[in-house]
Design goal:
By secondary structure, this protein is mostly beta strands. The protein has one domain (about 10-140): Lipocalin (Beta Barrel), CATH 2.40.128. It contains no helices and ten strands. It has strands spanning about 10-15, 30-40, 45-50, 55-65, 70-80, 80-90, 105-110, 115, 125, 130-140. It is globular and about 45 Å long.
């Protein structure tokens, strides 16, 4: 569904662990990366998916337009046989008046709602919060 609503499109998503240690190596901060496909209806209903090779979560949520616009959504699905659920809250970054070639961006937080296997024999616990940003690949 093509809506042309602000926030709709395909985004490159990256999330980072919230570590305040300025000396931490940047590569140790990665929480996740994916493609983020968002469709927003004229009524503000958000749907879509967050995905990469071999996994996908279905998105459901809403958009509230203001200054800045706010998107809230939940991603859920089965990954490697286990349920995954994450909550997302983000803002559409407004145009910066002196910006040059500004790429549309989303900035926000992600929270793991339920625990799931971490792929190394352990568990990724519920309640972990990370920061994320996404930049627009293509509008819908």
């Amino acid at each position: 569904m093509s809506t042309n609503q602000p926030g709709s499109g395909t985004w490159t998503y990256r999330s980072l662990i919230n570590n305040p240690d300025l000396t931490a190596d940047f590569d140790t901060l990665e929480f996740g990366r994916a493609n983020l496909k968002i469709d927003i209806s004229p009524e503000g209903i958000l749907s879509g998916k967050i995905f990469d090779t071999g996994w996908e979560l279905t998105l459901k949520g809403s958009a509230q337009y203001g200054n800045p616009a706010t998107l809230w959504f939940q991603g859920s699905g089965i990954v490697s046989g286990a349920p995954w659920v994450y909550d997302y809250l983000c803002y559409i970054v407004p145009h910066i008046p002196n910006g040059v070639n500004q790429v549309p961006a989303l900035v926000g937080s992600i929270c793991r709602v339920i625990p799931h296997p971490n792929g190394n024999g352990g568990t990724s616990p519920a309640g972990v919060v990370a920061s994320f940003y996404a930049v627009l690949q293509s509008p819908e």
